Structure formats: C-alpha cells, structure tokens
Amino acid sequence: MPGYGDSPPVEMVVTAQGRRTFLDHVLQELGMQRPVLVSPSMSGRFALPFLLAHGDRLAGFVPIAPVGTKDYTAEQYRGVQTPTLILYGDRDTRLAPQALQNLQHLPEHRVAVLPGAGHACYLDKPEDFHRALLGFLRQLK
C-alpha cells in the first residue's frame, strides 16, 4: 500500500478522502465493476472510507480485523447496505474485538470466527479462511 512499508510516501493517502479516492482510482484502472473488497488489517484505512462512501458499488465486503473501524460512528455503519462477512481469528484478542464491536453495526453482516487463528487468520488457517470466504461469495447476488 502506498505510504506503508518500503513504498514511497504518497501525499494523496494522508487523508481518508485521499485513500478513498486512491482505491477508487485503482478499481477503475482495473476495470472492476461491483467487486468484493477483501480488507485485512492496515488496508482498512483504504477500504472503510470507500465502503462508507461507495458501498453500493461493491458486491460484498470482507473485513479481516481491519484498522480504523473506530474512526466511524454506528450511524455511519448503519447506512451501508453492502453484504459483509466480518472474519477474524479467535486468537486476535486486540484488534479483532474492537473491529467486531464497530462493524457489527453494518446491517447486512455475518460473522465468521476461525478457531486457533491469530490476526493473520488467512495465513494461520488458510483452508478454514477459504471455506468461509467461498461460502460467503456463493451467497452473493
């Protein structure tokens, strides 16, 4: 992601609006229409502003213990009608509970908890992760 790790800093992604615009640009450049947005950890800083502004342009949303959930109100989350699978590992005792507490206000959500998995639950339990993800994807319109 721009501005993180070894990537060069990008002024555009300093604000939530800039990150939303950046993600919008990426999706447009890829020609994606109604994608399912999978958002683990730090990508929440990009995905959440996009979801709140353009959730109607997504077929689904899969937050995996994303950061930044506390930056928005329950009322803002309630306004999103995007089908959502809140996914996390039960050993992620720091970020996952906070994310769940905030994201549970999304009206079209379901929750999948991966037993024995930590913050990077998709790495700890890849078969369980893919089973949950594919089950969610099959139920989308």
TrEMBL record:
It is found in: Cytoplasm. The keyword Cytoplasm applies. GO terms for cellular component: cytoplasm. Keywords: Cytoplasm. Its main location: cytoplasm. This is ABHEA protein. The lineage of its organism: Eukaryota, Metazoa, Chordata, Craniata, Vertebrata.
